[in-house]
Design brief:
This protein folds into 2 domains: 78 residues, Beta Barrel (Elongation Factor Tu (Ef-tu), domain 3), CATH 2.40.30; 89 residues, Beta Barrel (Elongation Factor Tu (Ef-tu), domain 3), CATH 2.40.30.20. It has 4 helices and 12 strands. A hairpin with a 2-residue loop joins strand 1 and strand 2.
Amino acid sequence: MFTGIVEELGEVVAVEPLQDASRLTVRGPLVTSDAGHGDSICVNGVCLTVVDSRDGAFTADVMSETLRRSSLGALSAGSPVNLERAVRVSDRLGGHVVQGHVDGTGELQQVTPDEHWTVVRISLADGLARYVVEKGSITVDGVSLTVSAIGPDWFEVSLIPTTLALTTLGAKGPGDPVNLEVDVMAKYVEKLLLAGVRPVTANEEKP
């Protein structure tokens, strides 16, 4: 589990195509400082498992399902990436609960700079729109953000200078793809409501 607070702006060192997969090597001295085989690191919002870690870089295998659902397949040597280690139980939850399971991709439509922040509009697929609400949380390329406005097929977020400077979002422009993860709690609530499950009250015995 992650919080969507990017720890480090890393860089892709190499991308090795495999059969129905890809092997990604990423440089990130901070996130690899205590990383070992089997640890989880979030790369642009995608939870990857460390296969090897040495000399300030780590290697992870990316399966075809992940390549299909995310923008990781478009990465190449030199690409900047947002990195975050898995959260400890004792850590502060600075963003929101992020699984690192990308629901789909969006596309930057507009970037509108202001004096103190920049408003970014991102396209939203029909299958995800119902989970996104104004003032709710969404993860964009691994960054926990608050939805500032929403339309039928888009949403907007307001980015402060720190977010622009310390993540990949500061270098993106119209037409660029981004990984999206909606709030998992919204999906659980929807499933319970569709199933017609009545919550058990404190005075009732569970079966």
